[in-house]
Amino acid sequence: MDVQTKSKGLHGVMAEFRGPEELLDAARKAYGAGYRTVEAYSPIPIHGLAEAIGQADRKVQTAVLLAGMAGLGAGLSLCYYTSMIELSWVPAMFSGYAHNIGGRPLNSWPAFIIPTFETTILFAGITALVSMLVFNGLPLPYHPVFNVARFREHASTDAFFLCIEATDPKFDAAETRRFLTGLGATEVSDVEA
Amino acid sequence: MTEPTVARGFEVPASVDRIRRQAAMVGVIGLVALIGGAFVNRPQFFQSYLVAFIFWSGVSLGCLALLMVHHLSGGAWGLVIRRILEAAAKTLPLVALLFVPLIFGLEHVYEWAQPELVAKDPILLHKAPFLNTPFWVARTLIYFLLWSGMAFLLTKWSSQQDQGGAAGLDRRFARLSGPGLVIYGLTVSLAAIDWMMSVDPHWFSTIYGFVMVGGQGLSALAFIIIVLFTLTKSEPMSSVVQSKHLHDLGKLLFAFVMLYAYFTFSQFLIIWSANLPEEIPWYIRRLSNGWQFVMFALVLLHFALPFAMLLSADIKQNLRLLMPIALLLFVMRTVDVMFQVSPQFHEGIYIGWIDVAALVGVGGVWVAAFCHYLRGRPILPVNDPYLKEALANHGSH
């Protein structure tokens, strides 16, 4: 009975590692052993860690690329419309200005490049931030990993954690705990949901 | 402390020696053709030679600048290519020697070197205190003394480091490189004005020095990636170079592609918008009589295509995919230098065999010298305190 409730209320098993290399190594081994719902936590960016636990999706990159292209189209259209198109039936406040400026052609596209560039960067930059937050599921007021005291106090400064979550098909509290200990973890703890 | 086995494992592959011989052969053939060209068409000889000289000196100087940037910034990317940078920087005295023939034909290249033209032209007369042969030659001599001096010191200290020399060498590198980069920026700006901008002595552009700096950085990075591709065909570099190094070099290449486009577009937009009679002729010349196609090719192949390709992280990390882009950029750099210089001498689009002979001849000699300087030392800075970390196969940079 006691065991039953405990495993029901388990978010996963968390292991602490000494440094970035140990964490990366453990992450690779955990993924290699067939665990798929794995999260790694590090206070510093570790190159290749995301790939090591199978997080190879390019959602943010794709969103940024698409937004950049949308920004390019929007900026170019804006320049084109404001400096070339003046239609009699369009109310004055929405109309472009097809004026002769310094004898240059209306379609002075070299001058359009800078606003177009700026809107490209603007769209891409805002999308990078917003899509990162959305795809990460942020803001998130509660997350079980903070139930581990070591994590609360050290995860953002000087400790490296790997958490195998209970939703993993291969997850078995005792077996997973043994597995993580075998990877050379300095400490292995249960994470309450 | 280095174990001797490590040092022994980092020998320069034999292919470098083979390439040196081949390059020397190609260089001699090119130079013979070039000298033939001097008899056929003397002005064209000097004009083509100027293009080749500016391009190949740019590779040396770009490598010198990147070497100093690396000594200031550190980073694994710089350690794996440090010997390439040093060997290229060491060619600077040779490049200075290659400059000498130009002195004997200045009047074929520069209007300001023709007294009868200067006498008739109030603007050239006004510029004569700066743009005259003795002062021009003296300036170039000073540039080469400064560049060769910095290259000499940095490579000398590097050899001392190889032999386990004095502690604190890495601080000495940094102490020279800081002021060295300032000297580089100033002298290359002046060299850009002297060698390239004064080909049209009436024209001026304040960003032109930076255009040359950006171009040299791009030429150097493209060259480094091509050399790395060759070196990684055999041990030890095949097991040394990792995707993290390539990713950084790819990012730098990407940055320089954008930087160069930014500089040149800034120059174009300002001159095009103002449309002033003293500035715009330079672009009118380059946008008519066929030269516009060269400009479109540059926009497409020097910027747009490499830019689109280098957006991908996978391409940046894969030397087999990165190499063709670097090769394309390297070739387009020669086209760009030609595009800056040649329209002054040819109303209509022109690329002649003397141009090709000069680029190949000077290039062959340059590459042979580069290979020569690459030999005889370990292919990696074996005693650098950061080398172990740079070669470790884990995440941190």
Describe this structure in words.
- The complex is a heterodimer of chains A (193) and B (397).
- Chain A has 2 domains: 3-57 and 142-192, no CATH class; 59-135, no CATH class.
- Chain A is built from 7 helices and 4 strands, in the order H-E-H-E-H-H-H-H-E-H-E.
- Chain A has helices spanning 2-8, 20-32, 49-52, 59-84, 109-136, 149-154, 173-182, and strands at residues 10-17, 38-41, 160-165, 187-192.
- Chain A has a 4-stranded antiparallel sheet.
- In chain A, helix 4 runs antiparallel to helix 5 (109-136).
- The longest helix of chain A has 28 residues, at 109-136.
- Residues 1-7 of chain A have low confidence and may be disordered.
- Chain B is mainly α.
- Chain B has one domain.
- Chain B is built from 19 helices and no strands.
- In chain B, helix 3 (42-73) crosses helix 11.
- The longest helix of chain B is centred in the N-terminal third of the chain and has 32 residues, at 42-73.
- The radius of gyration of chain B is 21 Å and the shape is globular.
- Residues 1-7 of chain B have low confidence and may be disordered.
- The A-B interface holds A 20-21, 24, 44, 46-49, 65, 102, 104, 110-111, 113-114 and B 244, 265, 268-269, 272-273, 275, 311, 394-397.
Strand order of the largest sheet of chain A: 2-3-1-4
The number of domains of chain B is 1
Average predicted confidence as pLDDT of chain B: 91
Largest interface: A-B, 15 and 12 residues
Task: Give the gist of this structure.
The complex is a heterodimer of chains A (193) and B (397). With 193 residues, chain A is of the alpha+beta class.
Write the layout of secondary structure elements.
The complex is a heterodimer of chains A (193) and B (397).
Chain A: H1 2-8, E1 10-17, H2 20-32, E2 38-41, H3 49-52, H4 59-84, H5 109-136, H6 149-154, E3 160-165, H7 173-182, E4 187-192
Chain B: H1 4-9, H2 14-40, H3 42-73, H4 76-90, H5 92-103, H6 106-109, H7 115-120, H8 122-127, H9 133-162, H10 169-196, H11 208-231, H12 237-240, H13 243-274, H14 281-286, H15 291-310, H16 313-317, H17 319-341, H18 353-374, H19 387-391
